[in-house]
Amino acid sequence: MSVSSGSSRKSYTALVDTMRPAKPVLRNVLRAFWVGGVVCFIGECVEEFFVHAFHFSEKTAGNPTVAIMILLAVILTGFGVYDKISQYAGAGTAVPVTGFANSIASAALEHKTEGYVVGVGTNMFKIAGPVIVFGVVAAFVVSFVVYAYIRLHG
Amino acid sequence: MGTLAIFLAAFFVGGLICAIGQLLFDLTKLTPAHVMVIFVVAGAILEGLGWYDPLIRFAGAGATVPITSFGSSLVHGAIEETRHYGWLGLVTGIFEVTSAGISAAILFGFLSTLVFRARG
């Protein structure tokens, strides 16, 4: 028996598309907006805390803030809370840096049973890896262009 | 700008960036990994154009907490380092600013496996 032909597969996917319930896009976007906003609001609170309690400048407070946000996200991931919030908030928890930390922690936990080197070490960046790879490549290209521009015009 | 205004700006700008992410999730066939990559690359380009720093001054954590700031910080570190080391700075400076984030994510992620186990 042959695998389904191209045309019938196409009509099948078209049929599935008509049957599939419409995505509640507006609802999802509103959820992502308010949860993402709250995550950034919490980030701002942490940042102000570092500025006032430890006399960081507005500029240097960014680094410890990101570290604290990551720590919070990893703890919430460990307790299984982050994934529950993610199901509700979608991009609201995926786009902040906490989502990056969540992807690392959950991949690490998921593969813990395979051992620390082969399981945790190998899989930790399974999801976060592309962000770092393309971030670095893009950053190199952009800063190369900017620096070349500075050298030519500065 | 008053202190209260920066909290509001953080909420609205951060929320807006996440809302754009959700639109990409729902209205395109891109996977979450693709969307994250797009955000990081967009952050790098905005930084290169000099537009990300004003956004950080306006919205604080609303601009530094979303993943776009990762791309922006990578470029920021590289360009800063070229002041001291010229072309070589492009390579040596890339992780200058983002070191805290990457290190924290690896460290806490690893430590979490010592304490927690997978759920669900």
Automatic annotation (TrEMBL), chain A:
The chain crosses the membrane at residues 29-55, 61-81, 88-107, 127-150. It comes from the Bacteria. It holds the Pfam family SpoVAC_SpoVAEB. The keyword Transmembrane applies. Keywords: Membrane, Transmembrane, Transmembrane helix. PANTHER family: STAGE V SPORULATION PROTEIN AC (PTHR38450:SF1), STAGE V SPORULATION PROTEIN AC-RELATED (PTHR38450). This is Stage V sporulation protein AC.
From TrEMBL, chain B:
The keyword Repeat does not apply. The chain crosses the membrane at residues 34-52, 59-79, 85-116. Keywords: Membrane, Transmembrane, Transmembrane helix. Pfam families: SpoVAC_SpoVAEB. This is Stage V sporulation protein AE. The lineage of its organism: Bacteria, Bacillati, Bacillota, Bacilli, Bacillales.
